[in-house]
Amino acid sequence: MSNIKDNDRQILYECINLKVYDSLVQVYWKRLFHIIRKILVYYRVDYDYDVIEEIRSLFMIEILKNDCKKLQQYDEKKGQGLRLWIIMICRQYVLNYLRDKKLLSITTRKNIKSIEEEDYIETQNLFDEYSVKEDEFIINKCLSTFKAEDQLIIKLFYYDGYTLNEIASMLNKNIVTVNTKKFRLLRKLKKCLRSLRAL
Questions:
Q1: In whole angstroms, how far apart are CA 105 and each of 32, 40, 43, 44?
Q2: Is the full-model pTM beyond 0.85?
Q3: Domain 115-197 bears CATH identifier 1.10.10.10
Q4: Burial (CB count <10 Å: 0-12, 13-18, 19+), residue 55
């Protein structure tokens, strides 16, 4: 049984049974900012800090209302970690918010997907799956075997929420080069996780 799942259970217990939300906020408040930001980038919605703050605050109220009904619907038997569950319901909440504000339409997304859009669809859920199932210590142990720049790419994209364009600009590299390297690093990370998990 992983420590992450134990932490999930503790957060759920505190929220649902004790009506104490400190752990939930501490673990997810910052993450929600980057999750919401990525969704807005993906759907090409103009945004600023205040917009993200508004959505984040409203979403937190949403998952806590009615005795944490949204959290009560979480079922660990389905194999999802709590983090992935929260990402899923956050994504749906943001889409509903954008529709209500008439900021989302069929024409919002281009017919031809950019590299970044393809990347979001194909790799974000995969990385989230490993993030919630593996102990953070093990993930960091694998990342520590990467070169400094490779670690930076993974952390900037998956943890800090920067876009591929932003990372390419920071590293003074072509976006295609950064995207190709990121996929290679993800495969390397998965291989390392599997090997450590098999021990």
A1: 23, 13, 9, 11
A2: no
A3: yes
A4: buried
Distance from the first to the final alpha carbon of the chain: 14
List, for residues 104-129, the tens digit of each pLDDT value: 755 454 432 443 444 444 445 445 54
**Tokens 């954008």, residue?**
98
User: For residue 50, how far is the Cα from the chain centroid?
Assistant: 20
- Distance between CA atoms of 147 and 163, rounded to whole angstroms? 20
Do the beta carbons of residue 163 and residue 41 sit within 8 Å? yes
Sequence length of the chain is: 199
Inter-residue contact 84 to 65 (CB < 8 Å):
no
Note the pLDDT of residue 121.
43
What's CA 74's distance to the chain center, in Å?
17
Secondary structure E strands in the chain: none
Q: What is the mean pLDDT of the chain?
A: 78
Q: Which position has the token pair 């295609």?
A: 176
DSSP output for 155-193: IIIIIS---HHHHHHHHT--HHHHHHHHHHHHHHHHHHH
Residue 93's nearest CA partner among 59, 45, 48 is 59
